[in-house]
Amino acid sequence: MSAAQGHAREIGGADAAERIAEIHIADLHAYYGESHALHGIDMTVHRGELVTLLGRNGAGRSTTLRAIVGLIGRRTGSIRLKGEEVIARPPHAIAHLGVGYCPEERGIFASLSVEENLMLPPVVAGGGMAVAEIYEMFPNLAERRRSPGTRLSGGEQQMLAMARILRTGADVLLLDEITEGLAPVIVEKLAEVLGVLKARGYTIVLVEQNFRFAAAMADRHFIMDHGHVAEVVEAAELEAKAHVFEEYLSV
Amino acid sequence: MLTDLLGFPPQVLFGQLLLGLINGAFYAVLSLGLAVIFGLLNIVNFAHGALYMLGAFTAWGLAQFLGLNYWVALFAAPVIVGAFGMGLERFLLRRLAGVDHLYGLLLTFGLALVIEGVFIKLFGASGQPYPTPAALTGGINLGFMFLPWYRGWVVVASLIACGATWYIFERTKLGAYLRAGTENPKLLQAFGVNVPLLTTLAYGYGVGLAAFAGVLAAPITQVSPLMGSNLIIVVFAVVVIGGMGSIMGAVVTGLAMGLIEGLTKVFWPEASATVIFLVMAIVLVLRPAGLFGRVA
């Protein structure tokens, strides 16, 4: 990719030094009970960027997202969201900084209808998508708005899980394995949606297994291994650093 | 009439059915509160009977010391006892989040013993009378039975409380939060909902319902420290029968069990104290999650 394209992406400013760090993580450790899951993560994501967390199962990718939104009880180090330190804040306070989280298991509520699921997350900032706009983006959800949330197909549930955080005005999106187990046509639809979101200036962290899905859009890839960030690969370095992907992602 | 064929005068049958309906109304309101509490706190609230008793005593105290009448107490006592409940949740029950259910059971059972013990010490075990509100004394002869106004009111008021709770849970945004919080509280909190606060409010509401039932009961039974512990065992059987999962289930099962108990009193009086437990045993064998419970 050319440098000109690189600049066009930078919403925070023309120079790298002026870019605004939406997520700044330093020496993050996280624990599940006795198990030490993250061993000192350092990571910066700028406003308007789309980055991926790649790695094998258990490398700490989902844990990193869970740590950012506060779902891991014991964490140390520093997580700054839009300049605010959140390491000691409860999850509900973190969400109100404009963070939208889409969990790996999708987290659709069975006792809520599709529309109730969609309307559930509180508005955390201005500028969220209108419900009409969301239904336009995901017409299937509009058709099935009265059904119980978990009656939807896997793909529809994934769209619902995405749609409900777009309504809230969150502009930092943490998306965990959104293409997992879905048909190619749905994956294509999700790619299209991500493209729209990126063009609108959302900051997106994508945990993915499907490297092809992510590579086309991402500005940067964080390769995780054993609770560390093993490598950072810029979009421009994809070919030069192909060996990195071989080393950390091949099974 | 069918009842004549069976050899029972209609007065007896309908009288017992009314009694059953009243008991069922209490079961419904109390098991409803338990279901709300279990949903968000994952705690089987054994203090529920003591809090029901506190509701009745608060009504009695408001009349005795402040001269406030029944209608004031019907609103004030649930608020006062509910606030006390929120204090319990905030400072005691919250500490048990994430540990085995058994600890919640032990703590709330202990609280019930302490609260009841204090009231026995203060007021004696025998109980205080509480007058029926003047507007609801007397009754009406329906032909087949005599309906005391107050008993009718208890059924109506209970159904209103159940209906309002159902409406809140199923038709409002707060209800969507409560249902979502029952299913996956962590994710709900990650969306920006203050789940700890929601949990405190849910406990306060469940306790408020218990206190409301206590005030309703005050003119019927007596206001005595052990009025709750006598009732709560049956209520837990009702909860097991209905299953913990559903608001509607708690209400329907509560009323149905009251009616079954009433009918049994007509046809086989000796069994009336055990019939609910018999139903419980059968349901546990056939449907361990309860009639309305979601199978995990």
UniProtKB/TrEMBL annotation, chain A:
GO MF, one example: ATP hydrolysis activity
Keywords for this protein: Amino-acid transport, ATP-binding, Nucleotide-binding, Transport
Organism: Mangrovicoccus algicola
CDD domains attached to this UniProt entry: ABC_TM1139_LivF_branched
Domain ABC transporter: 23-251
Top-level taxonomic group: Bacteria
One GO term of the biological process aspect: L-amino acid transport
Name of this protein: ABC transporter ATP-binding protein
Family stated for the protein in its record: Belongs to the ABC transporter superfamily.
From TrEMBL, chain B:
Bilayer topology: Multi-pass membrane protein
Subcellular localization(s) per the UniProt record: Cell membrane
Family stated for the protein in its record: Belongs to the binding-protein-dependent transport system permease family. LivHM subfamily.
Ranges annotated as spanning the membrane: 12-36, 43-62, 68-89, 101-124, 152-169, 232-260, 266-286
Single GO MF descriptor: transmembrane transporter activity
Annotated source species: Mangrovicoccus algicola
InterPro entries xrefs: ABC_transp_permease, BCAA_transport_permease
Protein name: Branched-chain amino acid ABC transporter permease
Gene Ontology BP term (one): amino acid transport
CDD domains per record: TM_PBP1_LivH_like
Predominant subcellular localization, coarse grouping: membrane
Record carries keyword Transport: yes
